[in-house]
Amino acid sequence: MQTFLISHLPALLVALPLLCGFLMPVIGRAGPRVRNGWVLLGGALTAITGLLLAIQVLRFGPVTYVFGAAHTTQTLAENPAAAFPIRIMFEIDALGALMIINTTLATLAVIIYSVAAEAKQSGLDMFYALFYLLIAGVYGMVATGDLFNFFVFLEITSLAGAALVAYRIDRGVAVEAGLKYALLSTLAALAVLTAIGILFGQYNALNIAALASRLQFTPLDKVALCLLIVPLAMKCGAVPMHFWTPDVYTTAPSSVTAFLVISSQASLYGLFRVLFSLYGAMLSWATFGWFLIILGVLSAFIGVTMAIPQKDVKRLMAYHAVSQTGYMLLAVGVGLAVLGNASALAKFGRAAIAGGLFHIINYASCKGLLFLTAGAIFLRTGTRNLNRLGALGHAMPVTMVLFMIAALAIAGIPPFNGFASKLMIYQSVFHFSPLLAIVAMIVSILTLASFVKVFQALFMGPRRPEFANVREVPRPMLIGMSVLAAYIVIAGIFPQFFVTRMIAPAVNALLDRAGYIATILGGI
Amino acid sequence: MIWNVFIGLSLLIGLVANTLGIVGVLRFPDVYTQLHAETKATTFGSIFTSLAVILYGISKFCQTSDGQYVTLILHALIAVVVLAITNATGAHAIARATYRRGHRPVKAVVDHLEGFSK
Amino acid sequence: MSPWMFVVTVLAGLILLAMVRLIRGPTSANRVVAMDAINTLVVAIMIVLSVVFKQVIFIDVAIVYALLSYVGVLFIAKYLGGEL
Amino acid sequence: MALFQTLKTAAGVWNPLLWLIALAVAIGIGLYIRSRGRADSRQGPAREPFISGNPEPENAGAHIPATNLYWGFTEALKGWYQKLLPIHTGVLTDYVAWFLGVMALTFIIALAG
Amino acid sequence: MTPYLFFQGLVLAGLIVSGILVVTFKDLLAAAIASGAFSLLLALEFYLLQAPDVAIAEAGIGAGLTTAIFIIAIRGTKRYEEEE
Amino acid sequence: MKMTKIVRTTADAFYPFCLVFGLYVVTHGHLTPGGGFQGGAVMATGTALLIVSRSYREITGRLRQTMLKLCEAFGLMLFLLAGLQSLANARPFLGNWLTQTGGFVGSVVSYGPNPGSLDTGGLVPLLNVGVGLEVFGGLTLIILCMLSGIKEDRP
Amino acid sequence: MFAFIVTFLFSGGVYLLLTAGSGSVLGFWAPQELWVGLVISLAAALMARNYFFRTRRRPLDYLRRWVRAVAYVFGPFFAELTKANLDVAYRVLTGHMRPGIVRVKTGMKTDAATLLMANSITLTPGTLTVDIDEETNDLFIHMIDVPEGMENRDSIEVEELFSLFNCPSWVRRIAE
Amino acid sequence: MTRLFLALPFVTVVILIILGLGAMLFKKNLIKILLGLSLMESAVNLLLVVIGYRQDSVAPIFTNVPSGEMAMPTVQALTLTSIVIGVATSAMMLSFAMVLYKRYGTVNVLEIRKLKH
Amino acid sequence: MRTALFCVILLVLAGGLLLMATDLSFGHPLRSDMDDYFIRHGQYQTGVNNIVTSIVFDFRGFDTLGEATVLFTAVLGVGLMFRKLHSGEEYEND
Predict the structure, then answer these.
(1) Is F114 an 8 Å CB contact of chain H?
(2) Phi, psi (5° rounding) for residue G102?
(3) Mean pLDDT lowest for which of A360-369, E22-31, F37-46, I85-94?
(4) Could you give the CA distance from residue G47 to residue G54 in angstroms, rounded to a whole number?
(5) E-chain residues within 8 Å CB-CB of H57?
(6) How many Cβ contacts (< 8 angstroms) between chains D and H?
(7) N or C: which end of chain B has fewer CB within 10 A?
(8) Residue E43 belongs to what domain range?
(9) Pairing relationship of beta strands A63-66 and A89-92 according to DSSP bridges
(10) Nearest to B89 among F10, F17, F115 (CB)
């Protein structure tokens, strides 16, 4: 039984959330208690599956899973020399495991949080069903090894995300944001589909590894590359295309916003996958490395400067999300730019990528916690306007502490996890180009400055009469937030543990294109 | 051979009727008269081109007695029946909608529907 | 060129002619008429083409086509009549 | 113990535990210095805040709105913000146009380079 | 040039024309009608390309239901695209 | 508002035809062009005919959204559970554990053109039915919901 | 219950038409097609029974009417359709027309008869059904060429529209 | 001439994609933008099917098929998926537009901008 | 100015995409090993005559599950849009 379950974990990873989501409209008719129980049960099962799978990958190496084949031979042509996968495969290497852990963490926190936070709203069974579909979509995106399947999961993620963003239909602002998100996502997905068509027409394969092994880098492949990376960069909110991010993150319910961060990071994962695993050796590294670096620096700087004058707390945080995505793009771009230079790669490139990947999971937890605290405040006070808020520290001390932890972590203050990853990024980027490192540090300082402003506006000051009956939020919400806070503190105090166990294998997996191909083409 | 003559004849009739129908759609002045041309002529033409296919199926079935030609005949028949009914009803729906929208027939000599309103 | 193919080509030419009405049609109702005509012609083309391709199963497409475009026409008519 | 290892970055090391210990020591020293002070130093009129001779405002009035907090900063960078804010129009077409523009630029970069 | 290619050229020309109509019509209802005609021709094109499955799907979903959904949406909003 | 008697009667007459034809397309998905999506779309068109020929109030009295939701969820669960069932039959997720077994839908097919037989394909007809139900319920629900959106402001 | 059976029979008939030629049982059908057809017809009948059939009639009568309908479609109706096309050809080539909308008293009693009548009128020479009076089942038809003198009358009888055969009586015998 | 007709499918695809993009860039009405989007979706579907066509081939269905080379089936399967996804996205965005019209009273994108800066 | 910029963008995109017309040839796919495998073995392996269906539901059945999920998502989204709000259910969005 155990081996049975273990060997089918990749399938269950997507099937379980889908099962929860499909049954939700039916179970929702049985009453809110049953529904909440089902939501929590599904969340727990999903999280356990994800963690088990990630641990298995990190301990025993990459996992592949072929959907629908009776024997592995059925996945290949009869000629072993020209073997190629014809079915959909999941290929989860250490990078995928990192993303799965990231998603699992957010799933746990957000599910527990949302059961209490969204309790009084209408259409909740549809809300939770969409939530589970969103989770399944993100899991599928990070686990799949098939390009078209990636497109399908991208669509699931964007559609479910857009529907959840538009959840608060009473004023129309949320619907506006949802429409913008859905339209841009559809456009992006269409571009990805065109790229898939072009690649398929030339190489007649859909598996990423098979495509990578056949790639010739003709002019048409360059077009396909552009059609793949620009939409994915847009979906993760890189700067000249970041406009949807603040709109969407502001208006969505806070638990959804915390998970949308994860879904945009899944796009980031896809971007890295395309650049490193699919194209890898074919690229002119400097060009595309600098492409990422410029996107990253622009994101970091413009994001943070746009954040400072904001007066809506979630919008401010959303601009910070853009800014922090810039760090990851910057760090991985530095790694990509020195990919052909072995000594530079060993000296600082690898560390830069490690910093970028470590920042993914750190940033997801910090930003998720920030959005969750903003949601808690919004739940109690009914406003997000910083000018009207204030003096909540008296009534909501736990929320204040959690907010402080997250804000300090994302600003890169020791001993929280944001400092560890940012330190790695600064030092390795400094070797590449000191100017970039200085920009990164300025951005960090400005981040701290704006969070000081938020902290002051939210929690400081004498008691105010309009918030006289504000209380601490219900316990499930606090528990959900504490999950993320616990990770922030632990990863801040023991960063090396995470780096050696999770990040270093992920970096190896990202850089080892031949290994990625051999996992599928050579191993069978 | 005799089958081929019939098939050719049906195709010819179908083509002529379709062409007349489309020319009518282009030439006639208002919606109602265009609908006359469209409904009658193109339906008639399509029925005859399909009749050619049915005749072809029958001739082939007589030669080979293969089951697939039965399918060909019956499915073509069903398609034609569906087409005829939907075309007639669709034309009615369009005409009624046009009238309700306020477009009156051009140069009408009589209009009994004028005062009749719902 | 077989007679079937000739018929099909002429019908395609007629579709382009009907498109003239689609472009010019002063009111939406005229355009619906043109769309209906195109629809009928396409069904005829599909039925004939299944002989050209010698594939019996293709006729199913024509049936679906005749059936489903009707719904579109009805919706447009209902909207035009101000009843939707 | 893998848990307590030092984080090696590209050019240096970082050990949060050492940092925490140092922090604790610093706090201890601070507390010690504080305990050495005189307990009665803030008696009398020195307790009153001095706001240019104005009387101290009431509780609610003491709250500084968030917009005013970095007024100086935004004022100094006025030129930058005047360029930056109009770009964020909120119009859907502009979002699409930026996306397609970046894509066109990337086409040129990729096909030329 | 085979008759097949010529015929296909006609259908593709129809596609392009109806595509242009979809974009240029100011009256949204007319644009939706043109979009329906576009779907019809696209289904014919799929049929020609030996993809009957796709042709059925396009005929059913594209020509029938998408037109219906667009009509409902136009009814739910407004019909004319205002001048800039 | 409802359309004329002529349209209504045609719609009533076509409704069972649409259902039968849709189900034909669904069940013959593995033999002829078509399959779950196309058949589901044809069936949904049948209900769309009913919807367009009648007034919104009358149609909501007859077509229950709950039933359509159940239909949709049932189709999806059929798909998912058929996939999970293959785990129990020592195949990976969505493995075709019924084909070529000689049983229920497992007749053996050899290579080459043939007239086709309904009892082949293994899991495929089952999945076709699941997807057909799902698409039927889903598309009908979409149209119904959107109609409810435009009827709200008009008593 | 009766409606259910009629719908079931209709669905089964359509299914059998669709799948004819698949095997050799009973001449044209494969055995499994029959089983599946049974299930499908049951399902379709279950869903459509309230729509397809609303009047009560004897089964044998029903069969006779279907035979008559087929005869009508291939006989009188087809002849009228041919004539209609000659008419349309004439109009298209000459452009001669004298349009108008007139009221036609049909006197049909059932919905099916009205439908059949309306479709016959639409597909026969020079006439097109525009609207219908829901109570009396009177049709308003658009005539492309109103005969002299007709515009002065209040309404006309349906028999005046058909010259070759007496279609209305056929329709009455089929569907009333 | 033959070369032109052979290139025509791809040229059509590109023209349709550009038309759709043009509608999204130059038009201000939301419904029109969505029409352009569905136009693009159709164009991409056409691209996929065109890629998989083989000259003088038959449909990839063995039931009652004449002998001959078959068109490539994978792209057709992908196109099926993409068509259903297209209708799903269109339906959702159109209902967004309807709700938006109800709240804002307009579908002009220049006026749907409560979220800015 | 704006219009000219948009036209340039569209032209560049069109130029890039028009490479398809020269590099891919209509009617003669560059490679087809995977599809040849499906055509040769699909019928036997799955027992399905329609190769497209065999790919949709067997070889790439997981995609189909995803696609059904997309439709389900859209239905839920449309349902969320037109749901009835509880009385007094309001969120401030300022």
Answers:
(1) yes
(2) -125, 155
(3) I85-94
(4) 14
(5) 50
(6) 28
(7) N
(8) 11-76
(9) antiparallel
(10) F10
Q: Which chains touch E (3 or more CB pairs under 8 A)?
A: C, F, H, I
Percent of chain A with pLDDT over 90: 52
β-bridge mates for residue H108, sequence order = H29
Tokens 């038309």, located at residue: H19
Of F69-73, G138-142, G149-153, the range with the lowest mean pLDDT is G149-153
pLDDT higher than threshold 80 for residue D79? yes
A184 CB-near residues (< 8 Å, 6+ apart)? A234, A244, D95, D96, D99
Q: Could you tell me which residues of chain C have a Cβ less than 8 Å from any Cβ in chain F? A: 57-58, 60-61, 63-64, 67-68, 70-71, 74-75, 77-78, 81, 83-84
ipTM: 0.94
**pLDDT tens sequence across A261-302:** 999 999 999 999 999 999 887 788 888 889 999 999 999 999
Contact F45 C71 (CB under 8 A): yes
Domain coverage including residue G16: 2-52
Cα–Cα distance for residue pair A514/B11, rounded to 1 Å = 62
**Residue recorded with tokens 């940012």:** A422
The DSSP result for A317-335, as a single string, is HHHHHHHHHHHHHHHHHHH
Its domain, for residue B10, covers 2-101
Section G108-122 average pLDDT: 80
Three-state secondary structure call for residue H65: coil
Model pLDDT for residues A381-414, shown as the tens digit of each residue: 888 888 888 788 888 899 999 999 999 998 888 8
Is B68 in Cβ contact with F115 (below 8 Å)? yes
Calculate the alpha carbon distances from A196 to A146, A193, A226, D104 in Å.
Answer: 10, 5, 12, 18
Residue B103: DSSP 8-state: P
State the SS3 of A2-54. Answer: HHHHHHCHHHHHHHHHHHHHHHHHHHHHHCHHHHHHHHHHHHHHHHHHHHHHH
User: Mutate which of B16, B40, B48, B64 to test chain G, going by most G C-beta atoms within 10 A?
Assistant: B40
And the tokens for G67? 């035979």
Task: Give the structural domain span for C13.
Answer: 3-80
**Residues of chain E by 3-state class (helix, strand, coil), percent to 5:** 80, 0, 15
Count Cα atoms within 13 angstroms, Cβ side, for A433.
Answer: 15
Contact I32, H72 (CB under 8 A): yes
Which architecture does CATH list for H2-104?
Orthogonal Bundle (1.10)
- A133: nearest CB among I24, I73, I84: I73
Q: Give residue A224's pLDDT.
A: 93
**G91, G131: one domain:** yes
Whether E and C touch (3+ CB pairs < 8 Å), yes or no: yes
